[in-house]
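Structure (tokenized):
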């Protein structure tokens, strides 16, 4: 039995189809398209907490927080994704005139799901690292209080800082912002989901 080859798409082909799709979102990685599934209660609650806390902290600051409906494109990795939260400092740059695909985020945050954690830590992070504008990448667990903050140093090394204590403050130093772990996990009850 032979395996059927998977269809391969250009980013422009993917983008045209994605813009027409009304009932589901897809991510793109170097010619392949992957359907995104719905997120859990905990995932959505943490994402809302992140957006709310960052928005409040960035008032009067030149950075803006963006939700997961804005696509990010990493040209060097040929990848189009929907990060859970993005922060942009400075003027936005877009893939084209539609202004729905950002190419210069400063900080990206992914809330980890059991089905995506390996990709978020591996392949997706590798794609994001190709973005010259990206200064920080943050991974937030939804099944326990654990946050990993990866910061790009001036010599291009990525340094990880882990936060696991409930009484800690998470430092997003590239946007000059600190948020309490308790605020990021407000309302989340661990051990109730999958």
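Design, position by position:
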């Amino acid at each position: 039995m032979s395996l059927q080859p998977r269809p391969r798409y250009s980013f422009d082909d993917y983008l045209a189809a994605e813009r027409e799709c009304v009932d589901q979102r897809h991510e793109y990685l170097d010619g392949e398209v992957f359907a995104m599934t719905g997120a859990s209660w905990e995932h959505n609650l943490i994402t809302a907490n992140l957006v709310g806390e960052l928005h409040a902290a960035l008032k009067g600051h030149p950075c803006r927080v963006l939700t997961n409906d804005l696509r990010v494109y990493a040209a060097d990795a040929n990848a189009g994704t929907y990060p859970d939260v993005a922060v942009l400092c400075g003027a936005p740059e877009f893939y084209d005139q539609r202004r729905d695909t950002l190419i210069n985020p400063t900080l990206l945050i992914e809330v980890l799901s059991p089905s995506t954690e390996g990709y978020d830590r591996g392949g997706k992070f590798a794609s994001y690292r190709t973005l010259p504008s990206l200064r920080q990448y943050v991974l937030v667990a939804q099944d326990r209080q654990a946050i990993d903050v990866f910061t790009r140093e001036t010599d291009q090394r990525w340094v990880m800082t882990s936060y696991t204590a409930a009484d800690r403050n998470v430092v997003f130093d590239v946007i000059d912002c600190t948020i309490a772990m308790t605020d990021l996990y407000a309302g989340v009850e661990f051990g109730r989901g999958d």
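Reviewer-requested clarification: Helices lie at 11-20, 41-57, 117-121, 123-128, 181-184. The chain is about 20% helix and 30% strand.
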